[in-house]
Amino acid sequence: MPTSPESERSPKRHKSSSPMAPMASIPNVIDIAPMGSALMVLSELAGVKPVTLRLSRDMLTIASPIFATMISEASLAGDKISDEVLMHAAENDEPDTLYLLFNILHNRNEKLPSRLTVEALCKLAKTVEKYRCATSIGRGTAMWFDRLYNAAKAGTVAVDTWKMVEATYLLDESVFFARFTEMWVLAEDVSMKRLAVELYNRRHAQSGALKGDIDLLVNPCSVAFSKSARHYIDYAPGMMPDPDDDGKTVGSICHVDEGAATTYLGALRDELIWPPLAWPTTLGALVSQLQAFRTPDYDDCDKCDFCEDVKSRFGLAVDIVKKMHKDRLWGLCLDCFKAGGVKDGECRYEHSKLKGN
Q1: Positions of the region Disordered (predicted)?
Q2: Residue 268 lies in a domain
Q3: Alpha-carbon distance 298 to 191, whole Å?
Q4: CB distance 168 to 177 below 8 Å
Q5: Where are the beta strands (DSSP E) in the chain?
Q6: Which of 68, 140, 170, 249 could disulfide-pair with 104, CB 3.0 to 4.6 Å?
Q7: Same structural domain, 107 and 204
Q8: In a 3-state reduction of DSSP, which class is residue 237?
Q9: Pairing between strand 80-81 and 84-88?
Q10: How far apart are CA 189 and CA 101, in angstroms?
């Protein structure tokens, strides 16, 4: 007579040959998937420290490529207890949010709360985006969005509509994305709508300005590859070395500037600063990377009098861009915003203005 799955698992967990401790020695185990073969340790849950969640390895692998990678890496590293792979939650993950997410993924509907606050739903949405499992949870969040939407519409609960727009976007919840964006458009104060437009336009303008800043860095490098800068060592561009007795050209093309340009362009690419297609997802991350950028060492001792001096020009461009970013107003000036453009005279927040204003 075939044995049940439960009777098969018990001895596997207590193999004496396992180098890890038996399951009995792990405290505070919560079985989200009772027959699961994946364990995740949380630092704390509901005041209990630590807590280990038993999960389905197959479910996590199907639900999220990030969880699949975590399971694979833990298996390769030998992080196991008997046949169960052991993982640790990231420090910046909130245990309550992970517990909620895992219950949704494992269809443990009886464990789900009937209501969620706006803050809790936003945290869930950001965690779902991090682990790329929005498709897997499907419409699992619909009941919470529905309650908040109806409560906001009835005026019984104050709901941050913009946070709900963000949460529905991250969770790919099309129905409530349409409803909450409609609510924001129809209910938001007109001046706030104009502020949103101004902020969007400002971000677009700053993105364009950053591309111009990057061009300042790339320009001295690009010159090194131009036809007008090509020259023989110790000869001006366009001049040919004196031929030898056989009439053959004697001399070597100078590659000092090209070597410097290649080094600097490669460094910009490594730091995701250039080209724009390599930029991080936020302008703030790009600005931080520019501020942290350090010009790579390059020995240009072999340069001649006709080199473009790419090393010095690139270093100067880096310094100029960093200084501009420290002085730049990235957001909006309140006085200028209330003036409907650029305020005449001085503003309470000091910033540069276009000439003529």
Answers
A1: 1-22
A2: yes
A3: 53
A4: yes
A5: 29-31, 38-42, 51-55, 80-81, 84-88
A6: 140
A7: no
A8: coil
A9: antiparallel
A10: 35
Give the count of alpha carbons within 13 A of 212, CB side only.
9
Evaluate whether residue 58 is within a structural domain: yes
The verdict on 207 and 326 lying in the same domain is yes
Q: Render pLDDT for 7-26 as a digit per residue (tens, 0 to 9).
A: 344 433 333 333 444 444 67
Average pLDDT over residues 146-154: 94
Question: Rounded to whole angstroms, how far apart are CA atoms 239 and 247?
Answer: 16
Cis peptide before 275 (omega within 30 of 0): yes
187-215 confidence digits (pLDDT tens): 877 777 788 888 899 999 999 999 999 99
Q: Does 211 lie in the same domain as 102?
A: no
* CA–CA separation, 111 and 32 (whole Å): 9
pTM for the model stands at 0.62
Region of poorest pLDDT, from 60-64, 149-153, 347-351: 347-351
Could you say which DSSP state residue 77 is in?
Answer: T
Residue where one domain finishes, among candidates 112, 146, 181: 112
pLDDT tens digit string along 156-172?
A: 999 999 999 999 999 99
Claim to verify: residue 102 and residue 207 sit in the same structural domain: no
Instruction: Please check whether residues 205 and 91 belong to one and the same domain.
Output: no
Whether 37 is in a domain gets the answer: yes
Tell me if 159 is assigned to some domain: no
122 closest CA partner among 103, 102, 94, 150: 94
User: How far is it, in rounded angstroms, from Cα 230 to Cα 226?
Assistant: 7
Domain extent, residue 253, equals 193-338
